[in-house]
Amino acid sequence: MAEEGKKTARKRPPSIKGRRKFMRSIVYGALVLGTALAGYIPVVRGWARRLRPPGALAEDRFLASCIKCGQCVQVCPVEAIHLADLADGFGNGVPYIEARSQACDFSCDGLQCILACPTGALTHEMDYPHQVNMGEAKVVREHACLAVQGKGFKGLARGPDFKGKLRYDLELCDLCVRQCPIEIRIKDCEAGKPPSGDPNQCPPKHAIRLEPLEDAGDGRVRMKPVILDGCVGCGVCEMICPVDPAVIEIDISESREEGAWDVA
Predict the structure, then answer these.
(1) Other CB atoms within 10 A of residue 194 CB
(2) pLDDT tens, 165-197?
(3) Which of 263, 238, 205, 260 is nearest to 98 (CA)?
(4) pTM check: above 0.70
(5) Which among 204, 206, 232, 207 has a CA at the least distance from the CA of 129?
(6) Is 178 exposed, middle or buried (0-12, 13-18, 19+ CB in 10 A)?
(7) Which residues, in sequence order, are CB contacts of 80 under 8 Å at separation 6+?
(8) Cis peptide before 54 (omega within 30 of 0)
(9) Nearest-CA neighbor of 199 among 182, 186, 208?
(10) What number of H helices and E strands is found in the chain?
């Protein structure tokens, strides 16, 4: 009888409580593994590409150097810099700029975000805005451009839903050129008023200009925006464009990475 009891005990199925505990362990293990691997997905598929603050190293070195302290966020006078969320994978907590919402306009002459960075993820070997290489502005919707259509712009920049307060009354829209920080600095320098009185602040090259188009026979002056070598990819042209979606966008491509700041 004892022998039969032992055989019966061996055949007894595990309790419902035991099975539930086992299943929970599997689920928790899968969640931990999934969370750990989730960081790879945005990186592999390119979801995490962001416009970085001025002076950012090439992306791989930037992600390795940034300690996610948020100091650059704290000192930005126009609140252009934000910290990424979990959807950015390895970029979680890393600073980025959403140019269409609020671009970097270099309103701080000393590049405060660079000065605040404790690790050099925003390289300290940069002194002036025209040395920045954040990306490259590209005209992606020329047909939608008001200047190309020979139209002006009047009213609050980008309409009543935009948080900015700049107002304009332009016969021909030239906001992308008018508000470009590089072009503003060049204009000031040509007037003998370099930023902070420092001639080293004067950009050596123009960033953007409007070029005339052929007469369409309707008497309208038409011009198109052309991006030049002095463009630093700050995103102001994308932000200020009254057309939605914007005529100009900042391209953050692998080609930009080749020219990004990457010091030893």
Answers:
(1) 16
(2) 778 999 999 999 999 999 999 999 999 999 989
(3) 238
(4) yes
(5) 232
(6) middle
(7) 53, 97, 102, 103, 104, 105
(8) no
(9) 186
(10) 10, 8
